[in-house]
Amino acid sequence: MPSPLDPSTFEPAVPAARPATTLRARNLHLQFPTDRGALQVLAGLDFGLHDGEIGCLLGESGCGKTTALRAIAGFARPQAGQIEIAGRTVCSPETWVEPEARGVGVVFQDYALFPHLNVTRNVAFGLRASAPGERDTRVAEMLELVGLADAASRFPHELSGGQQQRVALARALAPAPGVLLLDEPFSNLDPDLRERLALELRDILKRCRTTALLVTHDQYEAFALADSVGVMEAGRIAQWDTPYRLYHRPETRAVADFVGLGAFVPGQMVQRDGLASVVIELGALPIHLRTDQAMAGAHAGVSGQVTVLLRPDDVVHDDESPVRADVVRKSFRGASFLYTLRLPSGTTLLSLVPSHHNHAVGEQIGIRFAAEHVVTFPIENSGD
Ligand SMILES: Nc1ncnc2c1ncn2[C@@H]1O[C@H](COP(=O)(O)OP(=O)(O)O)[C@@H](O)[C@H]1O
Ligand SMILES: [Mg+2]
Fold it and tell me: How many CA atoms lie within 13 A of 373 on its CB side?
């Protein structure tokens, strides 16, 4: 039998199973009283994050994102539902754990730094309970982590927006919270910086293996940062998925519309020699994947009519293609042009084309469909 100090005894015999769920929101309902009666803001919000996972609630302004974070942090109390953090119930109709006892760190939308404290003292704020020696070490570690070791003695007003955000992040991470909550962390920053900082933030969170929940209305931020994204509509989650699946396999038309660009075009489902395809103005799109076939079958009306989602990257420019479309609008995106195209029927499409194919508005270009998925929705579906 190996000695208890033999390192081999610490090695798991089998790879770790699914990591534990660190944050779980179960069927949260929260309403605010207003002059015009109760305003239902969370209406069955339900999701979970595994240990070390970065999740995101994505939705338009007013859909309840900040309220969801406040409920998780303990600043707002849902009337129904349950919140668990690291296996402990912190909120239910019978249970209430105060915010400071939840093991949650928060980065607020405006960072909420103390203007009269320098960077070191801002970061040390969350470590008031630690011994001074420990505290100094931890602050130095955090400043190193966020790349601000050189700015330790500066004051918030001497920092750029991006640097202030990193101080807020270091302050929230210093006490090693079980879950980090971030409310629109890039909304005060220059759009050019956002994507780079989102990737940087992701890198920091992954390095310290922090479970985090971000809320934002910006799809690019959500996609750059999160492992899983929940599209929020009216206080609940319409679809919880990876960014890739949300974009390529949206389950409702509303999700498809909110996530990414695209056009919805009419199609007719046909079965020939056991192969399903959808005929649209661009031609027949064979449906290769069984899940897509099942979806199209379920969505097709009695006469086989469906609505087909065409993403700009599904529509490719091809000089050889017999299908021609007029260039109605173009927008330069650096590596590519986003063309708005009109088919002879008047239907408009978007197409992402490498920018060396520079065509003028009014010109006709050849296009064809090129995607492995065919995403369909029922016709006349408002999506909800
Ligand atoms: N304390 C409050 N009292 C009354 N209404 C509120 C309160 N907080 C938020 N609301 C309302 O709840 C809705 C959702 O707000 P919020 O969660 O801030 O949305 P988001 O962060 O998605 O923009 C909004 O209509 C907002 O006006
Ligand atoms: Mg908000």
Answer: 18
* pLDDT range class, residue 18, cuts 50, 70, 90: low
* Cα separations in angstroms, 325 against 7, 23, 168, 195: 67, 49, 50, 33
Least confident span in 4-13, 100-109, 120-129, 295-304 = 4-13
Confidence (pTM): 0.87
The residues that bridge with 299 in the sheet, in sequence order, are none
Map tokens 């807020």 to a residue: 168
Computed over every residue of the chain, the mean pLDDT equals 90
DSSP 191-223: HHHHHHHHHHHHHHHHHTT-EEEEEES-HHHHH
Q: Indicate the pLDDT class of residue 5, thresholds 50, 70 and 90.
A: very low
Cα 255 from Cα 26, distance rounded (Å)? 22
β 211-216/54-58 pair status: parallel
Among 66, 70, 72, 216, the mutation site with the greatest number of ligand 1 atoms within 8 A of its Cβ is 66
What secondary structure letter does DSSP report for 116?
T
Q: Which of 23-27, 196-200, 255-259 has the lowest mean pLDDT?
A: 196-200
Ligand 1 atom showing the smallest separation from residue 34 Cα? 4
The ligand 1 atom at the shortest distance from the C-alpha of residue 33 is 4
For tokens 């570690």, the residue is: 141
**CA contacts within 13 A on the Cβ side of 140:** 6
pLDDT attached to residue 3 = 43
Ligand 1 centre to CA of 78 (Å) is 13
Distance in Å, CA 62 to ligand 2 centroid? 7
Ligand 1 contact via 75 beta carbon (within 6 Å): no
Q: Which residues, by Cβ under 5 Å, contact ligand 2, an ion? A: 65-66
Decide if pLDDT at 319 tops 80. Answer: yes
Q: Give the number of whichever ligand sits closest to the CA of residue 32.
A: 1
Q: 3-state DSSP call for residue 139?
A: helix
Q: With b meaning 16 or more CB within 10 Å and e meaning fewer, what string describes 4-38?
A: eeeeeeeeeeeeeeeeebbbbbbebbbbeeeeeee
Our answer on whether the CB atom of 32 is closer than 6 Å to any ligand 1 atom is: yes
Percent of the chain at pLDDT above 90? 73
